[in-house]
Amino acid sequence: MAVDWWTWCGQSHLIVEGSSVVVSLDRGRSHRVEVSEQNDGMELTADVITRQVADGIANLPMRIMHYNRSVQLVTFHIVPRGGVVARSWVSKRGLAQSAFQRALHHLACEADRLEYLLSGKDEH
């Protein structure tokens, strides 16, 4: 079952660029979310920090573990290339435009918040 998710992003705060969506947030910040359609759902992924930033953070695995305990519907992972990404998954079954947009916005907000807490920057 295919989902035309890009047609659901026709609002000024959601800008589709290829397979990703740039989500505009408060205070002029934004965050890019990659959308990957799976058999039965949509995987949403957002970079949080790069390897260069991650290398300078003490106790990063423990900080990510604690942060994962405080958020819902989003998980954070240290990836093999060395950075941190945020992930979320939504089922295609019964998926509506409003639910997809909420999932995009929630992931973007949580990824942006952790990016700011860890680096103080807005690069993604």
**CATH C-level class:** Alpha Beta
Largest beta-sheet details: 6 strands, antiparallel
The secondary-structure element order is EEEEHHEEH
Helix share bin: 25-40%
The fraction of residues assigned to DSSP E strands is 25-35%
Which class do the helix and strand fractions yield? alpha+beta
- The tally of domains stands at 1
Distance between the termini: 30 Å
The poorly predicted ranges are: none
Order of strands, widest sheet: 1-2-3-4-6-5
Task: Please state the average pLDDT score.
Answer: 91
The assigned CATH architecture is 2-Layer Sandwich
Radius of gyration computed on alpha carbons? 14 Å
Look up the CATH topology. Answer: Yope Regulator, Chain: A
Q: How many strands in all?
A: 6
State the shape. Answer: globular
Describe this structure in words.
It is built from three helices and six strands; from the N terminus they run ββββααββα. The protein is of the alpha+beta class and 124 residues long. It has a six-stranded antiparallel beta sheet. A hairpin with a 5-residue loop joins β2 (20-24) and β3 (30-37). The chain starts with 13 loop residues before the first strand and ends in a 5-residue tail after the last helix. The model has no long low-confidence stretch (mean pLDDT 91).
